[in-house]
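Sat 14:20. Reprocessing the chain from the morning session after the first attempt stalled halfway. Input below, unchanged.
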Amino acid sequence: MASHELGLDVELRRHVANHVSERRDVIVADTVATFPLTADSRRLDANYCVRLGNVTTRLLTDAIVDGRIDARGSGISELASLVSDREVSPDQLFTFVHIVMSTAIDELSLDDRVGVNTEPWPQASQIVRRAAFDLLGAWSTRLMYMPQHGAIEDSLTTLHTRPVLDAVLPKECCRAERFEHWLTMMLIDIDNLSAINKAHGYGVGDRILERMGILLRTYFREHDWVARYAEDCIAVLLPETNPEDALTLAERTRTMIEERLTFRDYRTEERIVVTVSVAVTSARALEGDPIDHQKLSTEVEAALDRAKVGGRNRVVPVELKPRLISIEEATLMLDTDINGIEKLVASGKLEPVNAGRHVRLEREAVEALAKSSR
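Finished this time. Tokens:
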């Protein structure tokens, strides 16, 4: 193909991708409205279908621009996790993607530049169709090496799988409450793994994950839970680990990986340094005030997103304080004594809470009083 034709193809792809991206809300809405009425599809709730539609349309746009899609990339990993959450069958997903594709082509047909009455229309519509097939092909490839739902060990990293961690986390939260211990969850995400794969070959990412699994399995304690959390992310659940120790450990882990997890591109002899972004969230459980395991997961995922936005190769810590505090802790925060606390309770400014064998106070109420007295 001549160079000017290649330039035209790139320009056409960008225009088609921009049009699909701009019309995403319409494409998703029309797909959600149509999908439950499709033959042989189990009805899924609208909110879930909107999430699935947004992810699918975004991936379709990426495939249109690049002319391919990385089966090991974070986008396909997100799609696989979303599909797994509701156990959507391959037939359902194929049908859903086909509707997204058809709706996108319908929207594109009205475009003044590449629409149905223009010369580029056959090529423009074919680009969308090919992107949909590339998307489904990448997802199918992803299934070949994705751990099965019931598996205990991830075949690539030899770490625990996500279902194991999901089963263990609530139990560790209960154990932390029983003994009033800290519990820490850490997420370790490989920086720019998709870009590394693209630049140095798509087998490199697997080798990095395999070596990281070996490093982390031997780095942490025997009673810590180390699991593959997502495609390029590993989770560590650390019982009886307070925020200070967790932050120190997270920094050491980040440094250790940067120093030891390197590889050489034998085509160029270039030495490649692998870095990670780390999120670490610690929560203290008290009797009658357990750790919310879903909130723990949500907070650590949000902290990981902040680490990526902040430039990667860094640690972002979060401390989740208990909802309740002891009477003794309240006296220190309010600079008073037990009699002072009793007066605040009698006046209705504080309300005692029965928590197991203890009487405690709402942290938020005590902090508000402390702030107003300054």
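The first strand starts at residue 182 and ends at 190.
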